[in-house]
């Protein structure tokens, strides 16, 4: 979700195999660099592998170009990497959020073969995506300050995962502003 | 010859044709690699054409991956890597060209020389080929950091004139310019006052 000169990215913490819950502290939101984060929903092993490959590519980019990747560039990179595997895809839907030039927030999502979808307000993905669309649409306001943004995204996340049996077991929210990054763990319905 | 200024880069070369029967419009020593990067060479024309083709492809591959135009330094690095490959692989010979690559990107105007060995250098002003030592001395005297682009074009033409045997005119030199608009332009019409003054 985009706020005023900041963005927030959040996920639930459940890792499960159909009905069985395997972990309640699974990390889905990963850092690429100080102002760029990626959330990967879907198959957990693909999420981890894709993250490792992206970090690899980004580290090489940093060494070659002596700078961090811009969020738009990173989104294009993820899109091309996913489409490379068009006929044997990674089963992940990434969410990319970052602060671009002049700390302008940038968010986008894509499907598992790299179809980019840019948005100005919010992007969602995962098993509870339909509930999330509804919750975000009704709760979102433009130009929210970081504290208000945190409240909004937390409420939207918790209310949507409560409607989905495969999501839940708490929430993890990251608020990123040009000067600092705040991480918070949410306690929701633990079921 | 190549000159970097605060607001652009200019590259220029003489176009020496083997005979007056040659159609001079078919010979182009200055080429663009991307809309904001141009290149000129000294050496073997055919080797230059191969490098231009490879560099253009590399620039496009970068764009396909990142949807961003390739920075000048990255294109220079990749071109230099190709040239180095040909000094170490079996059954091939090194490229018989030195390139001067001029570009304008987010880091401002830049100019690089790439040698057949694959080593590259960034220059504020440079010359290569015939008469290189005289040209460089001339540039050392004439170059200032805060030159305007039009002064730079003038200086480039004068530098060419220094080493040119015979009468210099618009038909036997080529000039390429990149201004702050970041578009590489091949200059077709030049103010002839520079030629008429001795």
From TrEMBL, chain A:
Q: Name one Pfam family in it.
A: Proteasome
Keywords noted in UniProt: Cytoplasm, Nucleus, Proteasome
GO cellular component annotations, sorted alphabetically?
Answer: cytoplasm; nucleus; proteasome core complex, beta-subunit complex
Report the locations given in the UniProt record.
Answer: Nucleus
The record's section on SUPFAM superfamilies has: N-terminal nucleophile aminohydrolases (Ntn hydrolases) (SSF56235)
Question: What InterPro entries does the record tag this protein with?
Answer: Ntn_hydrolases_N (IPR029055), Proteasome_beta_3 (IPR033811), Proteasome_sua/b (IPR001353), Proteasome_suB-type (IPR023333)
- Which top-rank group of organisms is this from? Eukaryota
One GO BP: proteasome-mediated ubiquitin-dependent protein catabolic process
According to its UniProt entry, what is the function of this protein?
Non-catalytic component of the proteasome, a multicatalytic proteinase complex which is characterized by its ability to cleave peptides with Arg, Phe, Tyr, Leu, and Glu adjacent to the leaving group at neutral or slightly basic pH. The proteasome has an ATP-dependent proteolytic activity.
How the protein assembles, per its UniProt entry?
The 26S proteasome consists of a 20S proteasome core and two 19S regulatory subunits. The 20S proteasome core is composed of 28 subunits that are arranged in four stacked rings, resulting in a barrel-shaped structure. The two end rings are each formed by seven alpha subunits, and the two central rings are each formed by seven beta subunits. The catalytic chamber with the active sites is on the inside of the barrel.
Name this polypeptide is given? Proteasome subunit beta
The species this protein was found in: Aegilops tauschii subsp. strangulata
TrEMBL record, chain B:
* InterPro entries reported for this sequence: Ntn_hydrolases_N, Proteasome_alpha, Proteasome_alpha-type, Proteasome_sua/b
Keyword annotations from UniProtKB, A to Z? Proteasome
List GO terms (cellular component aspect): proteasome core complex, alpha-subunit complex
Q: Which GO terms describe its biological process?
A: proteolysis involved in protein catabolic process
A matching Pfam family: Proteasome
State what this protein does: The proteasome is a multicatalytic proteinase complex which is characterized by its ability to cleave peptides with Arg, Phe, Tyr, Leu, and Glu adjacent to the leaving group at neutral or slightly basic pH. The proteasome has an ATP-dependent proteolytic activity.
The annotated subunit structure for this chain is:
The 26S proteasome consists of a 20S proteasome core and two 19S regulatory subunits. The 20S proteasome core is composed of 28 subunits that are arranged in four stacked rings, resulting in a barrel-shaped structure. The two end rings are each formed by seven alpha subunits, and the two central rings are each formed by seven beta subunits. The catalytic chamber with the active sites is on the inside of the barrel.
Which family does the entry's similarity section mention? Belongs to the peptidase T1A family.
Q: What is this protein called?
A: Proteasome endopeptidase complex
Q: Which species does the entry assign this protein to?
A: Aegilops tauschii subsp. strangulata (Goatgrass)
């Amino acid at each position: 979700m985009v706020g005023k000169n900041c963005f927030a990215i959040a996920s639930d913490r459940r890792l499960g195999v159909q009905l069985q819950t395997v972990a309640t502290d699974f990390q889905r939101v990963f850092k690429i660099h100080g102002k760029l984060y990626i959330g990967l929903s879907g198959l957990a092993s693909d999420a981890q592998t894709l993250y490792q490959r992206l970090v690899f590519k980004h580290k090489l980019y940093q060494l070659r170009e002596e700078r961090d990747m811009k969020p738009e560039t990173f989104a294009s990179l993820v899109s091309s990497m996913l489409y490379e595997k068009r006929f044997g895809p990674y089963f992940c839907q990434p969410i990319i959020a970052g602060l671009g030039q002049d700390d302008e927030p940038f968010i986008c999502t894509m499907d598992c073969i790299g179809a980019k979808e840019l948005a100005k307000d919010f992007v969602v993905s995962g098993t509870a995506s339909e509930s999330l669309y509804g919750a975000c649409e009704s709760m979102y306001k433009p130009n929210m300050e970081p504290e208000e943004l945190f409240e909004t995204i937390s409420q939207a996340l918790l209310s949507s995962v409560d409607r989905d049996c495969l999501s839940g077991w708490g929430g993890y929210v990251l608020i990123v502003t040009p000067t600092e990054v705040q991480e918070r763990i949410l306690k929701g319905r633990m079921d | 010859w190549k000159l970097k200024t605060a607001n652009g880069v200019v590259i220029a070369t003489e176009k020496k044709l083997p005979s007056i029967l040659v159609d001079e419009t078919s010979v182009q020593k200055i080429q663009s690699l991307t809309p904001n990067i141009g290149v000129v060479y000294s050496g073997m024309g055919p080797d230059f054409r191969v490098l231009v083709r490879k560099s253009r492809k590399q620039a496009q591959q970068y764009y396909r991956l990142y949807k961003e135009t390739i920075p000048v330094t990255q294109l220079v690095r990749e071109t230099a890597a190709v040239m180095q490959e040909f000094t170490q692989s079996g059954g091939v010979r090194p490229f018989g060209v030195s390139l001067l690559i001029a570009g304008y990107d987010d880091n401002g105007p830049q100019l690089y020389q790439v040698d057949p060995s694959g080593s590259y250098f960034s220059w504020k002003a440079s010359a290569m080929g015939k008469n290189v030592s005289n040209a460089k001395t001339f540039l050392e005297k004439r170059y200032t950091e805060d030159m305007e682009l039009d002064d730079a074009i003038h200086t480039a033409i004068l530098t060419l004139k220094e080493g040119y045997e015979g009468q210099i005119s618009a038909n036997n030199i080529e000039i390429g310019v990149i201004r702050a608009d970041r578009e590489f332009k091949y200059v077709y019409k030049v103010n002839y006052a520079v030629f008429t003054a001795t």
